[in-house]
Structure formats: structure tokens, C-alpha cells
Amino acid sequence: MKKRLLGAILSTLLTVTMATPAFAEIIWTADKLPAGYTTNELENKDFSFYSGNAIKKDTYTYYVKDLQGNFMKNATFAGGSRTDGNGAFIYADGFVPSFGTKDVETNYILSQPYEKDTWRQDSSKSTNTNGISNNWYGDSKTSRYKCNWAWLMVAPDGKKDGLKYAYCFNEYGYLYTNTITPDGYMVNEFGQLMIDGKVKTINPREIIANYNNYPIGHLIYDPVTRAQREQTPNPFF
Description:
237 residues, 4 helices, 22% strand, alpha+beta, disordered N terminus, 14% helix
């Protein structure tokens, strides 16, 4: 994937307060998903939904994967959700999502009281550590996004102007801010995607095509990137 040339741009368009992190190569390949695991079928087709998640098919148990496709074991995520020694996911309230079947999973989800996803802050963390903030997005059980770009209409400070902005979240669900993302994009101090030195926005009232969630490394932000993604099979499968 293409890497952006950063030198002159960084010095003139965005003040980066830390050294650019040295990210490992992003690898979304089929061999990184062991036999017996799957993800959402729709993700296979359009790069949407949860790029960092996997499901063990025989038990329908959730697992979490990092940017290199490895299972994240004994990890703690934004909001207090975590994984055990095998990489199986555990909600912040202690519930283990191991449903056995898709139908049982669906019934569980429908039985839960509705809780709106919102921006939240982890007061135990710094507002910016090497380009990663303490902001995350989700409900009280788990952060919504891991290893994901998300087009959202609400900023971390709660402001709304009717436009969508792209935000990038790391493997643990925290927002990248004032840095360069693992796939080479610039984000400002609010975590918003910048293209050619300007904050990139989508007006949902003017643009028919939907912009939602994309794995890091497969962001769609205009018709050109959409065409590129649609012409290339999802490398995760």
C-alpha cells in the first residue's frame, strides 16, 4: 500500500508533538486466520465491520486480532473489555461471548437493553502518548472499533455539524490523534483524517454512497479509493 511523503507536509501543515511511531507492516491475509475461524460474511465482501475480530465457528466464540493478524492474548481494551490467555474475548462486565451458534448470539443481542455508542475517555491514560489518545467510542461493555477507520458524525468533544469525519482506532480501541496512522494517513489533534493538508469531510446529504467502517489499510474516502477497494479482493480472505 502507498505510504504518504511526510517530511514537508508535517512541518508546514500539522504540528506533530512526538516522533512518528515505527509501525510494523499491516498484513491482512487468509493464512493469518486459522482453520475453524471466520468473521462477518459482509466483511469479506466490502472491508466493513470489525477487522480485528474473528469467530471460532464450532463454539461461536469471539477472538481479537492485531494489525499483523495475530491473536491478542491477555490484552485489555478501551472500556475494560479484555482477552484471556487464548485470545478469547471477554466483555467489560465479565460476560464471555461464546454462543455456540449464530442464532444464540442474535437472541442474546436482542435480549440486551439498548445502550447508545458514545465517545468516552479513559481517565487513567494520557490525552496523547505517541499519537494515541485516551478517547474511544462504544458502550459500557466494549469499544466499538479496533483496527478500524470509522466515519462518524459526532466529534470526540460532542460537536456535530451535519458532516462525517473519518477517525482511526488502534488495536485496543483508542483514537489516533495528531500523528500518522499505521496506513500512512495524517490525522489532526481531534483524530480527524486530513487529505492534502485539509480535514476530509463527507456530506451525507449530497453523497449517495455510504461511508462507514474500514480496516486500517483499506480506508475509503472518495470515489477513487472506493473503486480501488472494490477492484481488489479483500486480502484478509
